[in-house]
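Project channel, design review

CF: Before we commit to the Cicer arietinum constructs, I'd like one complete example in the thread so the newer folks can see what an input/output pair looks like. Taking Protein NRT1/ PTR FAMILY 5.2-like isoform X1.
RD: sounds good, go ahead.
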Amino acid sequence: MEVIEEKGQLEEDYTQDGTVDLQGRPVLRSKTGRWKACYFLVGYELFERMAYYGISTNLVVYLTNKFHQGTVEASNNISNWGGSVWIMPLAGAYVADTYLGRYWTFVFASCIYLVGMCLLTLSVSLPSLRPPNCDVGVKFQNCPKASPLQKGIFFFALYIIVLGTGGTKPNISTMGADQFDDFDPREKSHKLSFFNWWYFTILIGVLFSTTLFVYIQDNIGWTLGYGLPTIGLAFSIFVFLLGTPLYRHKLPPGSPITRMLQVFVAAMRKWKLRVPEDTKELHELSMEEYACNGRIRIAHTSFLSFLDKAAIKTGQNSSWMLCTVTQIEETKQMSKLIPVLIFSIIPCTFGMHIGTLFIKQGMTLDKRMGPHFNVSPASLSAFTIIFMMIGIVVYDCVFVPVIRRYTKNPRGITILQRIEIGLVLNIVILVIACLVERKRLNVARENNLLGLHDTIPLTIFILLPQYALSGISDNFLEIAMMEFFYDQAPENMKSLGTACSTATYGLGGFLSTFILSAVADITQRHGRSGWILDNINVSHLDYYYAFVAALNILNFLGFVVVAKFFVYNDVKLSKSGLEMHATSSQDNIKFRQNTSQPDVKS
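CF: and here is what came back for Protein NRT1/ PTR FAMILY 5.2-like isoform X1:
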């Protein structure tokens, strides 16, 4: 009798969400996953973010002062590189879900990432691989440009980093969330705040890089300034590998893109057929079959009903002719994320290149802090990080518990409402930036300081409000977007969902390149002075900020409409398995009275 009870307790200790160890065996809940596994994942991310932002934060200064590039060229190079960094995770997610799984995709990508960082460090260290310094008194236009070889190696290294981050970004946070079993109430509650504290730890690394590394690059040298982040990345990979025995893994479910294409093809091939009124006649597997594989069965919805034709039984069982209701609903769930993704691009466009222009502004201001210390313009982004860290603590420990009393939502407010607050704050930041820039230009004209290298008699800390408010905005916007695309993606497409959140930044980067170039070109036609010039003391960045603010206002109105009609996923857990239902935005904030059947709400 005791043996039977002991065996039953052991079986119950296994995770019930289909997670396995690296050899594909079921894992014990008590010995794997949860925060004890996440500590290693967070440790990796802390040092990796330190390395990445150690390169990206001050990149505009390197391109401007060392490569002697103009404002538009440097901004566009950074936007294109940043866009590639953020959109490449789509490929990484595909490889993870289709072939290698998240763990091995991450390991191989990290090695590529490290190679890129080493090559980049060499390119800024060896005299033959970097352009000569510009002599004092020489005009910017006459500074020696980088040779094709120097430029080629530098940007080749940057885009090797793109390949590496493409495999790490969509998988590291997804692996972190996978360490919590939705069948266990305690682990499920931890998962609700996982992304907040995940992001908080990341910010510690970012804060370190935007202060110490930026100071080293500006005052000691680029060799040490890039060498330390490279060493940090190598250490982060070591930390990740140390936690291998503790990780829970989900087996590659197969290509999500192929599964979605099968639904569209099957529906189109049966476009003349009529969907039966009784949806039980559509092709679907039993709850038990899904439960045995640790998967979620998704209940039928009326959204995009044309796709339901893919589940009509015609006697042909080819995967390109017959799909299950769950497979169709997975496709629907990914499809309904597209409008949210589209209206998230403009805010990411703001984040990509406006920050670069903030740094350019700071380069013209009085950087003194005390008699012996100068503040690096790029280091002001540390205030963004500090305010974001404060915002995360206040949001998770104060805001959510208070608001939850009224909304009865475990998250306090819905994820889309959190994003909307971030969008509003973005608009406020742009308005402030416009007013500050107008003040800077007025002082420059009053003192006749219109030269490229003239320093305006205004403290650099006049930019502090827009940097601080950016941190508060990111607390709402960036974390919510990451959580939204992970949370609302189907269970077998989580990597793809996470990649979609990064893809908004990638698309935003490319769009920012187009907008910046178009505005710079159009405003210089017919002999006009132009809004965005290499010499920002005679430019009109205030007009540009106002223009981008107007774009964000229009985007916000469109996002509100999309959010109003968005239907959240609602996962119900029972002893027979998991089933996902759709709930409206209003239903989502209502309190579920039956607490005996836990659910995961958005």
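RD: helpful, thanks. Residues 1-11, 584-602 have pLDDT under 50 and may be disordered.
CF: The longest strand covers residues 567-574.
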